[in-house]
Amino acid sequence: MMQYKLNFAFSIVFIFLIFVLSLRTHAYAEIHYTFFGYSLLNRHYPEVIMDAPWRVNAGDPIPVVCIIKDADRFPIVLDRITAKYRLNDGDWQSKEIKLEHSPLLITQHLWYHLSHIEPSDGSGNLEIIMEAEFTIKGKKRKVVIDNLPGLSHTPLNTLISPSSLPSIDGWYYGDPHYHSDMTQDQVEFGAPIELTVAMAKAIGLNWFAVTDHSYDLDIAIGQYFERDKNLTRWSNIQNISSLLNSSDGDFVVIPAEELSCGNCKSHNVHLLTFNVPDFIPGSGDGVKSGFMNKKPDLSLVESLKFIKEKGGFAYAAHPEAGNGFMGTLILNRGHWKKKDYDLPDYAGLQFWNGENHPKFEKSRKIWIDYLLKGRKLYILGGNDAHGDFNRCRGVRYPNTKLKETERHVFGKVRTYAYCGSGISYDRILQAMKNGSSIVTNGPISIIQAQNDNGRIAGIGEEMAGKKFKIIISSKSTDEFGDIKEVNIYRGDLINKVEQVDKIHLPEKFKSSSETIYNGFVYNIEPKNPCYVRLEVTSVSGGKKYSCLTNPIWLKVEG
Q1: Tell me: the pLDDT tens digits for 345-400?
Q2: DSSP assignment string, 410-423
Q3: Within the chain, how many helices (H) and strands (E) appear?
Q4: Which of 56, 177, 186, 274 has the most C-beta neighbours closer than 10 Å?
Q5: How far is residue 241's CA from residue 239's CA, in Å, rounded to a whole number?
Q6: Residues 372 and 481 placed together within one structural domain of the fold
Q7: C-alpha separations of 326 from 98, 254, 292 in Å
Q8: Are strands 462-465 and 552-556 parallel, antiparallel or unpaired?
Q9: Per the domain annotation, does 64 fall within a domain?
Q10: CA 116, CA 124: separation in Å to the nearest integer?
Q11: Domain containing residue 410: CATH number
């Protein structure tokens, strides 16, 4: 009997160890969930997290926020919030954030207070130290930046840029992969949509998509496992997005979903679904029904068929990012296989998933391979942020250790979508569906193709002709540095090879503060049907920034 108990205990410990090695997040960290009563992170007070955007334009007020979660379990009396800040190592300024009243009793599941600071004129790096003082069960506590155990609590850093993000008329910046507070589970949570709009505008974005996890969207608010037949989380996203879009014609929020579904091996992979009016169930890797029940609800084939029938479209979400052997063993997670990439009826790949993503080059090569096979697959760039407006504070090992990183910060990798005469909900969706977009974390570049008859095709389009003019417009700013390379990639669809033509930059075009090319023409006369696309790089402060366009497809006439 004793041996049986020891074996059982060992099995539980073993399962837990491989669990903590399998599930890592980049999100606001949930610290209150315990695994069989175990957690090194659990504290008997709510999570308190302060945040600010990673960049703003000079002269704009800077939004700062204090988020408090789980005060329904651990009520507090908030005494004050203060912000101290200094520009370029100068003198500290201080501001006490005005609350509704002080002291303020907080008992909500998720509460936040948004305010603004206005530093002295100038540009450069702004350090921000936010502090919250509260009382819980008669004891005074003070939080600096956050109260997540084991993290640095160092100042937030916001770049005050002397110029806006580089821009071209008719194009609009967005983040197509973002998680709101409706993603909320055992390890992570995001930020409210209304708050995210304020942060997005400060950063310089014009739109974002709310792609909350399917395995969270049918769970009751404030619960980890309890199913909600009313789909309150899903409904909240639809209602809030609709209200915001109707009240602000200059900004678009797109309700979407990050769907967990099954690849050809029946492993859980993720799919970004857009313009689908109904919730699609997908709980396979959410650990909502125990470790033994991790089979996908729907296969990729079934999911894509349903999405098409509903008039929507989909992108593969970080298709090469699995969770390794342990992630497969415990969560049944995998990545896209060849048979999955071969499927029809998806628009493309969201493989640029945060800065310095380790699978970027491998995913880029897969994309090119499929372009050369004749597939019209487009790309999106996003960050998979859950809040995370300045840095990511997430779980390294569940219940055990947290981490900080700058890889998945909201708005750092951007999709620049073409909307023509002005931004709208429908035009953003059409741009993503039809590939009328580019992806960047710095400079921007667009191409057009003009044939012998003077007809012009834009990114994502197709045209026929014998000789073509490739018209290039590229921009950068001091924030992202001088443009160092402009490369045209031409994919021969008969010989299945991609040729790169490196554009030599005249010195007069190398000023980062102005247009590098504005209507620069590059002539080509292809022998075979092909596509053309552009990659541009710039450098600032030793850091490399990149821009990739979607292709234009060219048919060669007689």
Answers
A1: 999 999 999 998 889 999 999 999 999 999 999 999 999 999 999 999 989 888 89
A2: TTSSEEEEE-TTS-
A3: 9, 34
A4: 177
A5: 6
A6: no
A7: 47, 34, 14
A8: parallel
A9: yes
A10: 18
A11: 3.20.20.140
Inter-helix orientation angle 324-331/2-22, to 10°: 120
Distance between CA atoms of residues 418 and 155, nearest Å: 37
Query: First CA to last CA across the chain, in angstroms?
Result: 84
How far is 266 from 423, CA to CA, in rounded Å?
A: 39
Cα 254 from Cα 238, distance rounded (Å): 9
Per the domain annotation, does 156 fall within a domain?
yes
> Looking at the structure, do residues 447 and 410 belong to the same domain, yes or no?
no
Query: What is the extent of the structural domain holding 304?
Result: 21-165+172-418
- In three-state secondary structure terms, 13 is helix
Which is nearest to 203 in space by CA: 413, 9, 421, 345?
413
Across residues 402-421, what is the average pLDDT?
97
Residue 314's alpha-carbon distances to 197, 319, 440, 483, 527, in angstroms, are 23, 12, 20, 33, 33
37: alpha, beta or left, given left = phi > 0 and alpha = psi -120 to 50?
left
Tokens of 292: 């033994």
By three-state DSSP, how is residue 434 classified?
A: helix
Confidence of residue 430 (pLDDT cuts 50, 70, 90): very high
- Specify the amino acid at residue 442: G
Question: Which residue type occupies 48?
Answer: V
Enter the pTM of the model. Answer: 0.94
Cα distance between residue 431 and residue 460, in whole Å: 9
| β-strand partners of 260 | 270
Largest CA distance in the chain: 87
Nearest CA among 184, 164, 182 for reference residue 173? 164
Query: Which residues, in sequence order, are CB contacts of 361 under 8 Å at separation 6+?
Result: none
CB 103 within 8 A of CB 79: yes
pLDDT tens for 314-328 read 999 999 986 665 666
The answer to whether residues 271 and 303 touch, using CB atoms and an 8 Å cutoff, is yes
Q: Where are the alpha helices (DSSP H) in 177-317?
A: 193-203, 214-217, 232-247, 300-309
What is the chain's Cα-based Rg?
24
Contact (Cβ atoms closer than 8 angstroms) between residue 262 and residue 269? yes
Asked whether residue 287 is assigned to any structural domain, the reply reads yes
Going 353 to 357 to 362 to 364, the CA torsion angle's sign is positive
Length of the chain: 558
- The residue assigned the tokens 């071969």 is 342
Residue 472, domain CATH: 2.60.40.10
Token pair for 416: 């620049």
Mean pLDDT to the nearest integer, 136-158? 98
Taking only the tens place, the pLDDT of each residue in 498-547 is 999 998 766 645 544 455 556 688 899 999 999 999 999 999 999 999 99
Residue of 352, 316, 348 lying closest to 547 (CA atoms)? 352
Question: Which helix H or strand E contains 262, and what residues bound it?
Answer: strand 252-262
Task: State yes or no: cis peptide before 103, omega within 30 of 0.
Answer: yes
Q: How many structural domains does the chain have? A: 2
Q: For 434-461, what is the mean pLDDT?
A: 98
